[in-house]
Design goal:
The protein contains eleven helices and ten strands. The strands form two sheets. A six-stranded mixed beta sheet has the order 6-7-8-3-9-10, with helices on both faces. Strands 2-1-4-5 form a four-stranded antiparallel beta sheet. The model has no long low-confidence stretch (mean pLDDT 86).
Length: 252
């Protein structure tokens, strides 16, 4: 019981079939509260499908998902999000024509129940500016607060997405390929951000960059052909012959 209480997410027998093809098959997953947990594996391993099942973008064909001990298997994506589960996507999701600050302010309005009330007075909305600036400073974007989001570099757009995600005050962040497409400098910046924001929340991430995984992840689950191939810390999984054959060796 104590071990179960330490887990924020527990999945048992998680399965998703598409026209008879099992993209995810019998996956058991325990994500420890306060940890950084990475899902790795070759293309087509079932990582993003697993994300979609946990966040309820997809309904499982079989299995159970529990969040903080409560069954969320059949809940809607909106209900799951209200519980404190927020995910990012491989493609940065921002409002390009809004300023950097306005993007974050929109996210901050959501918990207040005014996320779509654009006609609110500037004076009322400006009350959020202190928190906006705090979040932008945390992700290194304070100097860009009044710029249009469309003009940001790709790496800074990902940082902005982090800020908007943090504005929702998630208990669990699911990050889908957070360093995908970034240059070395931006990879280091995003890795530092992940480490920083993990101090008071849980992170489950899909990541191909094994250098990032080795530096950040407390636990790694390796998927291959929709099934769990191995689990453990980086030292354990990186020396596992099955992992080397299916994933690391397959990347060369």
């Amino acid at each position: 019981m104590a071990a179960a209480a330490d887990n924020i997410i527990e999945a048992r027998g998680l399965t998703k079939r598409f026209s008879g093809f099992a993209a995810v098959s019998g996956v058991d997953l325990d994500v420890r509260r306060g940890s950084i947990h990475a899902l790795i594996g070759p293309n087509g391993a079932g990582k993003t499908t697993t994300f979609n099942l946990i966040t309820k973008f997809l309904a499982p064909s079989a299995g159970e998902i529990r969040y903080n001990g409560e069954d969320i298997t059949n809940e809607s994506p909106a209900r799951v999000a209200r519980r404190g589960i927020v995910r990012s996507f491989q493609i940065s999701a921002i409002f390009p024509r809004m300023t950097v600050a306005e993007n974050v302010r929109i996210a901050l309005q959501r918990p207040l129940g005014v996320s779509l009330r654009f006609w609110r007075s500037e004076q009322m909305l400006s009350a959020l500016d202190g928190r906006v600036d705090s979040l932008l400073e945390a992700v290194g974007l304070l100097d860009h607060r009044d710029e249009a989001a469309a003009g940001l570099s790709y790496g800074r757009k990902r940082a902005l997405e982090f800020a908007t995600t943090l504005a929702l005050d998630p208990e669990l962040m699911l990050l889908d390929e957070p360093t995908s497409g970034l240059g070395n400098e931006d990879v280091d910046r995003i890795a530092d951000l992940i480490r920083q924001v993990s101090s008071d929340r849980t992170i489950l991430m899909v990541e191909h960059n094994l250098s990032v995984v080795s530096k950040l992840a407390d636990k790694i689950t390796v998927l291959a052909r929709g099934k769990v191939l191995a689990e453990g810390n980086y030292a354990e999984v990186s020396t596992n012959p099955a992992v080397i054959e299916a994933y690391i060796g397959g990347e060369d």
